[in-house]
Amino acid sequence: MDYSLKNTALLFIDIINDFQFDGGDKLVKHTEQILPNLIRLKKFASENHLPIIYVNDHYGLWNANPSKIINHCWNDKSKKIIDELKPAERDYFFIKPQHSAFFQTPLKSLLNDLEKTHLIIAGIAGDICVLFSAKDAYMYKFSMHIPKNCMASEEKEGNDYALYLMHSVMKAKIDRI
Fold first, then answer.
1. CATH of residue 84
2. Domain housing 110
3. Which H or E element spans position 99?
């Protein structure tokens, strides 16, 4: 799978999160463990002028305004992650109604307009929303790099199995950044 940075975009899946659900304590712990890698990935994308696209749950607000979603999600569990990774002014931000970043969102249209054919995908939960997004990206024929140290799930086993599927079935590169 050959790609160059000129045809690459970074997708951050559900990075803005309130962690207020069953299993949220586990997910925030695992997300904090990969936070330095996510920060490094965002810096790399910014320095190389890659589009950074956040696709996020809507939390019942149905509002694609990042500030409203951030304000809703910001709490003692999430503030460290949000403060480090919140979207910059130049970044894109979409909300999604279901697990996939592509389902009923303008993501594919944006990627086509930007002429991006390769995606670096990072975020949470790896065994749900990242997996569903990777499946759709594969169906749309995007090549992918899903760094194994930039994805977290509530359970390590689920995360590892999702990585296995994305690598073996969807042909994603999963090496660390």
1. 3.40.50.850
2. 5-168
3. none
Paired with 8 in beta bridges are 118
Instruction: Let me know if residue 75 belongs to a domain.
Output: yes
**Residues ≥6 apart with Cβ < 8 Å to 152:** 27, 30, 31, 33, 34, 124, 125, 126, 159
Ramachandran assignment for 143, one of left (phi > 0), alpha (psi -120 to 50 degrees), beta (any other) = beta
Give the tens place of pLDDT for each residue, 40-67: 999 999 999 999 999 999 988 887 789 9
DSSP structural state of residue 50: -
For residue 58, give both structure tokens: 């809507």
Residue at token pair 């910059």: 88
The DSSP output letter for 173 is B
pLDDT band with cut points at 50, 70 and 90 for residue 169 = very high
Distance in angstroms (rounded) separating the CA atoms of residues 46 and 116? 16
Instruction: State the Cα–Cα distance between residues 33 and 126, nearest whole angstrom.
Output: 14
List the alpha helices (DSSP H) in the chain: 24-47, 66-73, 79-85, 107-113, 131-139, 156-168
Pair 153, 168: CB distance under 8 Å:
no
